[in-house]
Amino acid sequence: MEALIVLVLLVQTLIQYPHVVGDGLDEATRLRMEMREKYLNQEMTRLLQELEQSSLEPGVRAWGALLWATLEQWHFWALLGVLGLLLALAFSLRKRSREPHGSAPQENASSNLEAQEDQVNGRANVEENNAAGREERKYGANGDQEQDRDSKLGRFIEESIRWPVLDRGCVITDLIDDLTRAFGHHLSNRFYPVPQQAIGMGSAFEGWSPRKEDVVYRVLVPLSPPPGHTFHLEPNTAAGMPGKDFCVRVEQVHIPEEKLRRNKNSILLYNLCTRSYLDVEKTTLWFRLMARASWSRLPQSKHWRLRVLPSRRSCTLRLTNNRESFCVEVLFGVQQGNSDIYVSSQSREALFTPSTVWPETYGVAEMKFFSHIARQAPPDSCHLRCLQLLARAGGGRAFSNYTLKTIMMHLLNTIPMAQWGRRHCRQRLLESLDYLRCSLQKKRLDCFVIGNQSIPPQIDLPPHFQTLQPPNLFWHLAQDPDAHREARQDFSFLRYRLKQLFTAIDGEASSAPGAPIA
């Protein structure tokens, strides 16, 4: 009996407040709803008749008792609340569905008004953005739009890439100097190479970094011969490739025979040489062992944890404390006379380097060149920003970071520094691409240091360097057609990446700081 009453209430609710499919109904839907309403009315009439017949026997008292028992149940009140919410929702939907459907012109007019309002708001937003842009421009109320776009590109590069911590460079070189001085306790009265003052070189000391996160600080430790020995640099002609490789021949001068017998196990020729030539891998192992043994004597050991990483031709140190961590790559070198040119333990890119071969490096001279440029550059110079962007966008493929740096050094040596401001960033990037394109066509990219007649005089070079034919950094492209074809494809990729960046900057789609580049 109670279930029948509840069912009647639900059916009556559905009849009076039917659910609506949408705001606007077509004619077929309306007909179906009218037929459904008639059917539900008939069912309601039948149910009411059954209810009247069943209610004649119990009488009015039975109805009152049933109603009182129902009111005492909390389930009834919960059901009543839910039904109330459904009734309110059905009422609002039915009211919207019964609005006249012959008002399409009115709806169109309303849509047109809304579109006009959006246009007005859009123009207002554009005017507001333009006003804000005019306030930010530094070239006056009638400033050049092209200069503003280029300045915006420079700001984007400056905000969205991570720069190496230049102040850390002096700390690192001082740390390596302290470490090598601590070697003195172990090297006294022994015939081993003598480490000299460390020299920072590479991208981190030049003010830029090709890496997104982990910056590697590269340090060169020059080695001088121990007492009673000399180093002689002999060109290695077996490489069969452009670029100079040397072997460091170790020769003994006069050493007392008694001293030789007493220090036989500590003689350089016995421990660090292969066939009288200084061995890079043996020297690296020796330095690594000395670094581990001497670290505890340094005051820095109280604040930093040292981890010596395995490497064949360099000593890689990972320094960590509670706040930060960084990596130092220690290379070893022998100076050519009193110049800024060294032979180093650094290996040739993508080539196997024998352990007795020391390739010629121009890293110290190039670092001094960037220091010379920094003293002449305007405060908002974009040369490091352009170099870092090129390395992030195209480095690591056919074009090494050194290739892109060489192109930038050639441009810095020919374009006046007054034209390297932030507003010139776009033009300098385009000129870098054009320089790379021409070099690919010619299959030739000259080394910057050798054969350069206009290199700054602050860089100390051997006397014959400026008269030499510069090595071709693209010699492998002239020898391998497949490598040349791949390089041209990578150039197209690099140009596409930079074009995407220009489009994003022009459309202000990537103006938020921290947008990733590579």
From TrEMBL:
Ranges for region Disordered: 98-150
Residue stretches of biased makeup (Polar residues): 105-114
InterPro entries per UniProt: ITPRIP-like, MAB21L/cGLR
GO cellular component: membrane
Coiled-coil region: none
Signal peptide: 1-22
Keywords (A to Z) from UniProt: Signal
Protein name as annotated: Inositol 1,4,5-trisphosphate receptor-interacting protein-like 1
Species for this entry: Pipra filicauda (Wire-tailed manakin)
Gene: LOC113994124
